[in-house]
Write a structure and sequence with these properties.
The chain has 348 residues and is an alpha/beta fold. The protein is built from 14 helices and 9 strands. It is 39% helix and 16% strand. The two termini are 36 Å apart. The structure holds S-adenosylmethionine.
C-alpha cells in the first residue's frame, strides 16, 4: 500500500473531487489539515499501512458518537454548520486534545461499504451463468457485508428501503443472467469484524461519513438483515493464507474471489503473492473480480486500464476468468455508478 508519506498531499487527495462536493465539511477539515503540522504529525504516527486521513476522521467521528462534549454536537448536527466554520471548530478541539485521534491509531480504516454490492451484482450478472453454484470469497471483506450481492442487489426493493442500492449504469455490459446462485459465502480478513459485536459495529459506523446519513441507515439496515441472511464462514488470516484456506473448502461450487478497496491496503509483497494465488485459482475455474484504486495496487500487475472513467476518483474493475484477465471498466468507489469499457467484453 502506498499512501503518500507527504501528509499535505495525502490530505489533498483523500477525497475524489465529486466527493468533496458531496461532503463539504469533511472536505474543509481535510483542507485545514493540509497546512496543519499537528495533523501531519498525527498522520505520520499511524502505522505505515494505515497512513490514511480517513482513519483520523473516523477516530473523531467515533469519539463524537461516544459523547465527547464538543464533538458530539458538531457531528450530530453537522449538516447545519457552514463547512469552514465546522472544520475550524473541530480542528480547535483536536489542537486541545490530539489524543482523540492518537488513541485510535491502532485501528484500521475498515469501512465496509455495502454500496459496492451493487457493482458486484452487476458484474456477476455479466459474467456467470444462472445455473452454476457460486462460492463467494471476499478477501479483505471487513465485516462481510459484500457477501450478499444476490440478496441486496434485488431491484424489487422499495424506494423507502434503506437497503435499496441505486447504481447508474453509465455504459452497459452485455448481461448473461438476471440472477445467479450463491451456495457459500466466505469472509477472509486479517482483522475480521463480527456483525454481532457492538464495538465492531460502532467502529464501522464511525468509518462512515456523517454528512451521508443514508449510508449509516443502510449499514444499520444491513446489520439487522444479517440475522435473516445466510451464515458466512470467517477466516481470520492474511490475504494469501486466507484465500488458500477458503479455496481448499470450495469443492462443489465455483469460487468467486472478490476484493474491493482491500488489496490497496496489502503490502506490495502480499499484493504480489495474493495475485499469483488468485490467478492460479482462475486457471482451475475460479472467477476473480477486483474493484480497487488503480494507483494503489500496482504490485499485483493487473492489466492496464482502458478508456476514461466517467468521473475522477473512480475505482477500476478487473476480472479474470479461465482464458482472460482484463480491465472490465470503472465503478464509483461506493457503488453509485458503473461503467463497462472492456475492449474485449464478457464471453458470450
Ligand atoms: C477499507 S476495508 C474494505 C472492506 C471491504 N472490502 C469493502 O469493500 O467494503 C479494507 C479491509 O482490508 C483488510 N486488510 C488489510 N490488509 C489485509 C491483509 N494483508 N490481509 C487481509 N485483509 C487485510 C482490513 O482489515 C479491512 O477490513
Amino acid at each position: 500500500m502506498s499512501w503518500s508519506f507527504e501528509p499535505a498531499v495525502a490530505f489533498r487527495h483523500a477525497l475524489a473531487p465529486k466527493d468533496r462536493e458531496r461532503i463539504p465539511r469533511y472536505a474543509a477539515l481535510l483542507a485545514a489539515w493540509e497546512s496543519s503540522p499537528l495533523a501531519g504529525e498525527i498522520l505520520i504516527a499511524a502505522p505505515a499501512t494505515q497512513r490514511n486521513p480517513m482513519l483520523m476522521l473516523a477516530a473523531l467521528h467515533f469519539e463524537a458518537r461516544h459523547g465527547h462534549p464538543q464533538l458530539a454536537e458538531l457531528f450530530r448536527n453537522i449538516l447545519h454548520f457552514e463547512p469552514t466554520a465546522w472544520a475550524s471548530d473541530v480542528h480547535q478541539v483536536l489542537i486541545g486534545e490530539p489524543d482523540l485521534i492518537t488513541r485510535h491509531l491502532h485501528r484500521r480504516t475498515q469501512t465496509n461499504e455495502i454500496g459496492r454490492s451493487a457493482s458486484y451484482h452487476y458484474i456477476l450478472r455479466s459474467l456467470v451463468s444462472p445455473t452454476e453454484d457460486l462460492h463467494l470469497i471476499d478477501v479483505g471483506g471487513s465485516m462481510g457485508m459484500n457477501l450478499f450481492p444476490d440478496l441486496v442487489g434485488d431491484d424489487a426493493r422499495l424506494d423507502t428501503d434503506p437497503l435499496r442500492l441505486v447504481c447508474d449504469v453509465r455504459a452497459a455490459a452485455p448481461l448473461r443472467a438476471d440472477r445467479y446462485r450463491v451456495s457459500r459465502r466466505t469472509l477472509v480478513d486479517s482483522a475480521p469484524l463480527d456483525v454481532e459485536n457492538p464495538d465492531d459495529r460502532d467502529w464501522l459506523r464511525a468509518c462512515l461519513w456523517p454528512e451521508q446519513p443514508e449510508r449509516l441507515a443502510r449499514f444499520d439496515a444491513a446489520c439487522a438483515a444479517r440475522e435473516t441472511w445466510p451464515d458466512i464462514e470467517t477466516i481470520a488470516a492474511d490475504a494469501s493464507e486466507g484465500l488458500r484456506r477458503a479455496l481448499a473448502t470450495s469443492v462443489s461450487a465455483r469460487p468467486v474471489i472478490l476484493n474491493s478497496w482491500a488489496m490497496a491496503y496489502f503490502s506490495a509483497d502480499t499484493q504480489r503473492e495474493f495475485a499469483i494465488l488468485a490467478r492460479d485459482a482462475v486457471r482451475h475455474g475460479a472467477l476473480w473480480i477486483s474493484i480497487e484504486h488503480p494507483l494503489l495496487v500496482t504490485a499485483a500487475d493487473l492489466p492496464p486500464c482502458q478508456g476514461e472513467p466517467w468521473e475522477d476518483g473512480a475505482s477500476a474493475v478487473w476480472v479474470a476468468e479461465k482464458d482472460s484477465e482484463r480491465h472490465w471498466g470503472y465503478a464509483h468507489p461506493h457503488g453509485r455508478w458503473i461503467q463497462f469499457v472492456s475492449p474485449v467484453g464478457p464471453k458470450a
